[in-house]
Amino acid sequence: MAAKTIYILNGPNLNLLGMREPEIYGSETLDEIAGQAEDHAQTLGFDVDIRQSNHEGHLIDWLHEAAAEKAHAVILNAGALTHTSIALYDAIKAIDTPVIEVHLSNPAAREAFRHKSFIAPVAKGTICGFGAFGYQLALDAASKF
Ligand code: DQA
């Protein structure tokens, strides 16, 4: 049987990882993080489908797709849309697929506008503050569902 797929969806500005505020987000690029996630998922017996978009609608379409494709889980770093997007809240609520919220930084320790998450109330759980390693932690968590 083919391995089950975990979608790893990344939102606005995460294509700039590596050069974007490395003191906050680390020096690894999204490609490097994707490579590590692929390797780690393989050891857990999963395939990963890793995507990034600067557009809210793409993330919504991909959440719907993950559900239609019966993905095992979605790992979602929605970037700043975390703090603004009722549409992402609705999309996650509308699907059965478990969604794990991930952030490289710890938004609770940053500006007040980052303290609100529209993802957290509809996520299975949240992993934040551990940099790129958070994606591997999220894969570990998803592998236990
Ligand atoms: C982020 C945290 C968000 O507040 C910010 O807007 C991002 C990245 C993180 O991974 O730490 O773009 O999601």
What would the keywords be for this entry?
Rossmann fold, five-stranded parallel sheet, binds 1,3,4-trihydroxy-5-OXO-cyclohexanecarboxylic acid
Task: Break the fold down into its secondary structure elements and pairings.
Blueprint: E1 5-10, H1 22-25, H2 30-44, E2 47-52, H3 56-68, E3 73-77, H4 86-94, E4 99-103, E5 125-128, H5 133-143
Parallel strand pairs: 1-2, 1-3, 3-4, 4-5
Bound molecules: 1,3,4-trihydroxy-5-OXO-cyclohexanecarboxylic acid.
- Principal-axes shape call: globular
SS element count, helices: 5
Largest sheet: 5 strands, parallel
Q: What is the CA–CA distance across the termini?
A: 18 Å
The amount of helix comes to 25-40%
Structural class, from secondary structure content? alpha/beta
CATH topology: Rossmann fold
Strand runs, count: 5
Q: What strand line-up does the widest sheet have?
A: 2-1-3-4-5
Poorly predicted segments = none
Q: What small ligands are held by the chains?
A: 1,3,4-trihydroxy-5-OXO-cyclohexanecarboxylic acid
Q: Supply the number of structural domains.
A: 1
What does this structure look like?
The protein is of the alpha/beta class. It has a single domain, classed as Dehydroquinase, class II (Rossmann fold). Helix content is 36%, strand content 18%. The protein contains five helices and five strands; from the N terminus they run βααβαβαββα. A five-stranded parallel sheet has the order 2-1-3-4-5, sandwiched between helices. The longest helix has 15 residues. Bound molecules: 1,3,4-trihydroxy-5-OXO-cyclohexanecarboxylic acid (DQA).
